[in-house]
Design brief:
Elements (H helix, E strand, L loop, with lengths): L2 E6 L4 H10 L8 E8 L2 E8 L2 H10 L6 E7 L14 E2 L5 E7 L4 H10 L11 H11 L7 H9 L6 E7 L6 E6 L6 E4 L4 E4 L11 E4 L4 E5 L4 E5 L4 E2 L4 E2 L4 H6 L5 H7 L1 H9 L3 E2 L4 E2 L8 H6 L2 E6 L1 H18 L2 E6 H4 L10 E7 L5 H12 L3 E6 L5 H5 L2 E4 L12 H21 L6 H19 L2 H11 L4 E6 L4 H15 L2 E6 L17 E4 L6 H13 L4 E6 L11 E5 L7 H19 L18
Parallel strand pairs: 18-19, 18-20, 20-21, 21-22, 23-24, 23-25, 25-26, 26-27
Antiparallel strand pairs: 1-4, 1-10, 2-3, 2-4, 5-6, 6-7, 7-8, 8-12, 9-10, 9-11, 11-15, 12-13, 13-14, 16-17
Helix pairs in contact: 4-5, 8-14, 8-15, 10-14, 10-17, 15-19, 16-19, 17-19
The structure holds fructose -6-phosphate.
Length: 614
C-alpha cells in the first residue's frame, strides 16, 4: 500500500526518508522512490521491488540534500515499473510530487495537458498532478508553490494525499489532504519538520504531530508549519503528542482501532483497487487468481463459503457475480457446509472469504470442496494465511492490518474484491454486460464516495446519543442491501451487546413485525434504487406500529424525511456498489452506540479476531 515520507531541515534528507519508508514496509508495495533537492536541482532515484533495491541504487549513485520526499507504491494505473514509481517530475524538472489516491478524472486531464504539449513519462494517474502544478505555476501570477498546488488540486476528482516539492522555493514542502485517501501527519522537530502518510514512519524522529483534516493543506519549512483550508483560510492546527508505544501510535488520532479502521476505508479501498483495474482499457486483472479463459468458461457455478461478516460479504458478492458474469452463485456458512453432503464437481468454483485466512470452519469447507474436486479460490486479508495457501488462486483484500475485533474495513475490501472478481470473470468468460466499461469506471469513484460518507460522522454520533438506551433493534434492507441490514445488526450486537436482528425487508411481515412497538427502533436502508418504493412501504408499516424509524437514504431525497423519524443521508452511488456506502453509517452507529455504553469496542467480550476452534 502506498506510503509517503517527507523531510525538510538541516540534516541529510536521504537516510531519514529511506528509514521512514522502511517502517512502512509492512504495508506492502511494489516499487519505491525518493527525490531530494541537491544544489538547486531535483535528484530522483526510483526502483521496483523491495526497498533494498532502491538502497542499492542510492549506494551506486548517492544523492543528498536538506529537503526531500519519498514514496512506496502499490500500482494502480500502470504496471510496477521504474518510470511509474513516484516521485513524478514535471516537464521542466521544477516540481516533484508523491501521491496516495486515485485521480478519477485523470484521462480527461491527461488529454487536456497533452493538447497543451505535455509529454507524459509514465502511465500513472499521479503524473497529471505534477504537470498541472507546473502549468499553474507558469501562468505568471502564481510563482508560489502552495498557490500553484492549490489551483492544480482543485482540478482533481477523488480522494488524495499529496506532497509537492519545487526547486523554485527550495525551503518548503506542500502537503495536501482531500478526503480519506490516507492521512497526512506533520511531525514537528527542532529546526526540522517531517511529513508522513503513517505515524510509524516518523515516530523515531518526533512525537509531536499535526494531522491535516480533509481539504486542508500545509506549507512546511524547517522552522514553520502553516495550515490552510483549500479555500485559503488560515487554520490553527492542534498539536498531538504521540506516546512511544508503537501499538498506540498506530492508532494515531483515534480512540479505538475500530474507529481508525472505519475511517481509513477510503484509503483501504483504494489499496484494494490498486494495480488491478486498468481504467483506460476498462479491464480488471487478478493475476493471483490464476484463471485462464478456458478454466473460466468451464465453471458453471460459484459456491461462496464464509462465516460471520465475511458470509454477509459473500451475500453481496452473489449479486455481483450473477449480474456481471451471469454465473449462478450459492452462499453457504463455512460452519454448515460439510454437514450436508454438498453437490460439488470440477465445474464448481468454491470461493472462501476470510479476512484472517485461518477460520477453522471456512478452512474445513475448503477441504470438503477440495476433496470433491472443485476449483478453490480464496479472498483473504492475511497474506500467507492457510486459506491463501490452500487455494488454487486468491485475491488479497489489501486492507492493511485489522486490529479491532469487529470487522469493518476487511468487510468493504472483500466486497470490492468480489466486484473485481465478477468483472474479471465476465471478461474471462467473454460475457461482458453492455455496461461493463461503466461498471469498471464506477470502481474509481468508490474512495471518494466513501470519504464523503465518513465525513458525516457527527450526525451519526448525535443519533447514537438518542438511541443507545434501546435494547432491541430491527435492521431492514432489500435487494443488494439486504445483506447490509444483516451486517449492520451484527455490528451493533457484537460491540454494544444490544440485541439486533437483520432481515430482508420483505420478510418483516412474515414474523418479525410482531415484535415492533415504540421500544424497538427500525433501521431501514432505503436508498433511491430499484427497491426504493418497497422500502418506503416497509417504513410505513413499521411507523403504523409506533416504531422509531431511522432511514439510510440518498442525498436529495426529502420525501423520506416525512416518513422516517431520523434520516442518515449518503451520497448517490451506483446501485451495485451501494452496499459499500450503505454499511458505513451502520458501522459508525454501532461504534458510537458502543462508546456511549462504555463497551470495550476493540475487544468485545467472548470474541476473537481469528476463530480457530469449531
Ligand atoms: C464480525 C467478525 C466475524 C468474522 C468471522 C469470520 O465483525 O469479524 O463475524 O467475520 O469470524 O472471520 P474471517 O473473515 O477471519 O474468516
Amino acid at each position: 500500500m502506498c506510503g509517503i515520507v517527507g523531510y525538510v531541515g538541516e540534516r541529510d534528507a536521504t537516510p531519514i526518508i529511506i528509514d521512514g519508508l522502511s517502517r512502512l514496509e509492512y504495508r506492502g508495495y511494489d516499487s519505491a522512490g525518493i527525490a531530494v533537492l541537491q544544489d538547486g536541482a531535483v535528484q530522483l532515484r526510483r526502483d521496483v521491488g523491495k526497498l533494498a533495491n532502491l538502497r542499492a541504487r542510492l549506494a551506486d549513485s548517492p544523492i543528498s540534500g536538506q529537503i526531500g520526499i519519498g514514496h512506496t507504491r502499490w500500482a494502480t494505473h500502470g504496471a510496477p515499473a521504474e518510470h511509474n514509481a513516484h516521485p513524478h517530475i514535471s516537464m521542466n524538472g521544477d516540481f516533484v510530487v508523491v501521491h496516495n489516491g486515485i485521480v478519477e478524472n485523470y484521462l480527461e486531464l491527461r488529454d487536456e495537458l497533452r493538447a497543451e504539449g505535455v509529454v507524459f513519462k509514465s502511465e500513472t494517474d499521479t503524473e497529471v498532478i505534477v504537470h498541472l502544478i507546473e502549468r499553474f505555476a507558469n501562468d505568471g501570477a502564481h510563482r508560489d508553490v502552495t498557490e500553484a498546488a492549490r489551483r492544480a488540486i482543485t482540478q482533481l476528482r477523488g480522494a488524495h494525499a499529496i506532497v509537492v516539492m519545487s526547486r523554485w522555493q527550495p525551503d518548503r514542502l506542500v502537503a495536501v489532504r482531500i478526503g480519506n485517501a490516507g492521512g497526512v501527519a506533520i511531525g514537528l522537530g527542532n529546526q526540522e519538520n517531517f511529513i508522513a502518510s503513517d505515524i510509524p514512519a516518523i515516530l523515531e524522529q518526533t512525537r509531536r504531530m499535526i494531522f491535516l483534516e480533509n481539504r486542508q493543506m500545509a506549507t512546511v519549512t524547517a522552522r514553520s508549519v502553516s495550515v490552510q483550508t483549500l479555500d485559503g483560510n488560515q487554520v490553527t492546527p492542534s498539536v498531538h503528542t504521540i506516546p512511544w508505544d508503537l501499538v498506540s501510535a498506530a492508532k494515531g488520532e483515534y480512540r479505538h482501532f475500530m474507529q481508525k479502521e472505519i475511517f481509513e476505508q477510503a484509503r483501504s479501498i483504494t489499496d484494494t483497487i490498486r494495480g488491478r483495474v486498468d481504467f483506460e482499457h476498462h479491464t480488471v486483472q487478478l493475476p493471483e487468481l490464476n484463471l485462464t479463459e478456458e478454466a473460466a468458461r468451464r465453471i458453471d457455478r460459484v459456491v461462496t463459503v464464509a462465516c460471520g461478516t465475511s458470509y454477509y460479504s459473500g451475500l453481496v458478492g452473489k449479486f455481483f457475480i450473477e449480474h456481471l458474469a451471469r454465473l449462478r452463485v450459492e452462499v453457504d456458512y463455512g460452519s454448515e457446509y460439510r454437514y450436508r453432503d454438498p453437490i460439488i464437481d470440477d465445474r464448481t468454483a468454491v470461493l472462501a472469504i476470510t479476512q484472517s485466512g485461518e477460520t477453522v470452519d471456512t478452512l474445513a469447507a475448503m477441504e470438503e470442496a477440495r476433496t470433491k474436486g472443485a476449483l478453490l479460490w480464496s479472498i483473504v486479508n492475511a497474506i500467507g494465511s492457510q486459506a491463501m495457501r490452500m487455494a488454487d488462486g486468491h485475491i488479497t483484500m489489501n486492507a492493511g492490518p485489522e486490529i479491532g475485533v469487529a470487522s469493518t474495513k476487511a468487510f468493504t475490501a472483500s466486497i470490492v474484491d468480489q466486484y473485481l472478481l465478477a468483472l474479471h470473470l465476465a471478461q474471462q468468460r467473454g460475457v461482458r454486460t453492455p455496461d461493463h466499461d461503466q461498471r469498471v469506471q464506477d470502481a474509481a469513484r468508490l474512495p471518494d464516495l466513501v470519504g464523503r460518507t465518513l465525513e458525516r460522522s457527527e450526525q451519526v454520533e448525535e443519533l447514537a446519543g438518542l438511541l443507545h438506551h434501546y435494547t432491541n433493534f430491527l435492521y431492514l434492507g432489500r435487494g443488494i442491501n439486504y445483506p447490509i441490514a444483516l451486517e449492520g445488526a451484527l455490528k451493533l450486537k457484537e460491540i454494544s451487546y444490544i440485541h439486533a436482528e437483520g432481515y430482508p425487508a420483505g420478510e418483516m411481515k412474515h414474523g418479525p413485525i410482531a415484535l415492533i412497538d415504540e421500544s424497538m427502533p427500525v433501521l431501514a436502508i432505503a436508498l433511491k434504487d430499484s427497491v426504493y418504493e418497497k422500502m418506503i412501504s416497509q417504513i410505513e408499516q413499521a411507523k403504523a406500529r409506533s416504531a422509531v424509524v431511522i432511514a439510510i437514504a440518498t442525498d436529495g431525497d426529502s420525501f423520506i424525511a416525512s416518513k422516517a423519524d431520523h434520516v442518515l443521508y449518503v451520497p448517490e452511488t451506483p446501485e451495485l456498489l451501494s452496499p459499500v456506502i450503505a454499511v458505513l453509517p451502520l458501522q459508525m452507529l454501532a461504534y458510537y452506540v458502543a462508546v456511549r455504553r462504555g463497551a470495550d469496542v476493540d475487544q468485545p467480550r467472548h470474541l476473537a479476531k481469528s476463530v480457530t476452534v469449531e
